[in-house]
Write a structure and sequence with these properties.
Length: 171
């Protein structure tokens, strides 16, 4: 009887997890505190713009549940966090400047391992140049925390990139 109850309980738990769906919205993540930004001085006014792909929500199976992500949402949040980080460093961010940085999140992927990895593939374009692809990642026991950290890491990576810094300084 105990074995039968145990088997029934396990089956119910497995079936319940199969039906779980979670929407991973970057706006719900705590990405405000980005403290590892380099000191940015003598930066001319800059415009930060999101290059949206008109992406639709995408389902990613992850450890017995489905997680829904939308890369355009991540692009918008990344641009907001990048703008905030620049403003906190007294960099003038204006709507229409000669200095334009365009950001586009191409893919957000969640990868299970002993922990969860959140990987953000993104493109960055400086002025009239070409888009260059980059990747930032973070891991944590919780996939939402991993994505919080991945967004922070992405902002930090952009602002530590020497080409970006030179462009912002007008060199």
């Amino acid at each position: 009887m105990k074995q039968m109850l145990k088997l029934i309980f396990i089956n119910i738990a497995v079936l319940a997890c199969w039906s779980c769906t979670s929407h991973l919205s970057p706006r719900d993540l705590d990405t405000q505190d980005i403290s590892t930004v380099p000191s940015l001085q003598n930066i001319k006014p800059v415009t930060i713009r999101a290059k949206l792909m008109n992406s639709k929500e995408r389902v990613q199976p992850l450890a017995g549940t489905d997680v829904i992500v939308n890369e355009d949402e991540f692009t918008q949040v990344l641009v907001e966090r990048l703008t905030d980080a620049l403003k906190r460093n007294n960099v003038p961010v204006v709507p229409d400047s000669e200095r334009l940085v365009e950001i586009q999140v191409v893919r957000v992927s969640l990868q299970p391992d002993m922990t969860f990895y959140c990987v953000i593939d993104f493109n960055r374009k400086l002025g009239n140049g070409e888009f260059y692809g980059f990747q930032s990642r973070s891991k944590n026991w919780n996939y939402e925390t991993a994505c919080e950290d991945a967004i922070k890491t992405t902002v930090t990576d952009i602002l530590h990139d020497q080409d970006t810094i030179k462009y912002l300084k007008g060199e």
